[in-house]
Amino acid sequence: MAEFTTLKQLVYRADEKFGDEIFLSEYIGKKFRNTSFREFRKACDDIAVWIQKHFTERTHIALVGTTSLEYLTAWFGVQCSCNVSVPLDTNNNPENIADELARSDSKMVFLDEKHVKDIPMFKERCPQIEYYVHLKEPQEGMLYLADIAAEYRGQQPTGDVTEDDLAAILFTSGTTGVSKGVMLSHSNFIDNTTCCPEDDYHGMKLLTVLPIHHVFCFTIDILHSLYRGVNVCVNDSLFHIAKNLKLFEPEFCTFVPMIASTILGKMQQAAKKIPLKKLIAQQTFGKKLVAIFSGGAYLSPEIIKGYKEFGIDIAQGYGMTECSPRICTGIRNCPKPDSVGKIVKGCEVRIEDGEIWARSKSVMQGYYKNPEETANTLTPDGWLKTGDLGYKDDDGYLYITGRKKNLIILSNGENVSPEEIENKFAAFRPIKEMVVYEDGTIITAQIYPDPDYKSKDIQAEIRKKVDEVNDTFPQAKRIVNVIFRDKEFVKTASRKIIRARINE
């Protein structure tokens, strides 16, 4: 364990080590707003003192918003006040947000403009909530973050918690069934923050792209940056990635595979007109990019190979919310691109009936007020059942072959992993999205063609590719039926396709 054991200590350590260096960079109203590590710690303290003055017992405090100084100040203000953060997906529908506010027993909510109109409904369904605080601007009938910070400016909160105390409740994306509240302790977060290779990232720039309520973004982008002294540059919208890459010129960025695939496809299209691939890469990512880190879902080796052709290294990691999230870390210039990275230090991995199990100090305490699901996921001796199928090699690299719950069991008893088939199409430009599943007794593929791909007959191109892939599989694993769709699949906030809703 590092010399610090709680998230409050991490914020204070960042101030002591990096002081006036820039922690957070934003571009707002055509102006840069930079916040140092010291300014950030002081802003967190202001909020923390207010919270301690208004709650005498440990309290769950929710946050609904996007990445910003205000949001992060509130998040860590909760931590510095020795309370529990409950980050919720701002893109979720209001009814689901209300449900998670109620199920998490939150008594205070920080939110931005998007959900102000939903407050009357929140008050009706969540009578336990005592305060609503607007993150960005004054609003009638609400508290305002800047005002409550000003009330106790310059003061410091008292006390701290232990490493085993609950730090946050993060709700799973809910690709099937009702979302579950993952309980992560300070020890979970700190272990996962410090389990990475000892590379020197101090002073480098990272563009943070993913939703801030998602643990991959929070641990890898925010906590790791506080730990290493990294300048976090905020991408304010998925639609502005290209603009912000040029604006901030980061050395690193974190993507999910869907974003990585989309950007690669656009670069490949540009390369048909301009054969200078390294120039295209610089025009896309700026001149300072060192590497991209990918997580959240499986990244096909074909995509990694595609980026290599543009002179860009993309490193794939693996984990899940229940493990804070890293089980494997992405390795730059990875010698085994078909793996999902190397198992992080301090984490044990074993394979049980083809399923990956993990055990480490990063593994969650359980699901909040859900002992049945906790018992289904955690063994009495601390092993986390990931639900993923795969294997590991003697060098400590892990490989994913599919998802246990998605496994297709044919009438002849043969098992087919739909991901194994889908990954064959991951770098095929005409296909934007694809889901393989069993329909009756046959393997079916629903395909959303890429609307930006120029073709005389895109469906014919796709059918030809399906035939080519089928020839590489035995009869039982071949796609029999292809269904073309005219809109994207329904997805989670981290851009994972929700398989239970593929017919919507």
Task: Characterise the protein shown here.
This protein folds into three domains: 155 residues, Rossmann fold, CATH 3.40.50.980; 199 residues, ANL, N-terminal domain (Rossmann fold, 3-Layer(aba) Sandwich), CATH 3.40.50; 94 residues, ANL, C-terminal domain (GMP Synthetase, Chain A, domain 3). The protein contains 15 helices and 27 strands. Helix 2 packs across helix 6, helix 7 packs across helix 8 and helix 10 crosses helix 11. The radius of gyration is 23 Å and the shape is globular.
Quick recap:
With 504 residues, the chain is of the alpha/beta class.
Notable characteristics:
alpha/beta; Rossmann fold; 15 helices; 31% helix; 7-stranded mixed β-sheet; 504 residues; 25% strand; globular; 27 strands; 3 domains; 5-stranded parallel β-sheet; GMP Synthetase, Chain A, domain 3
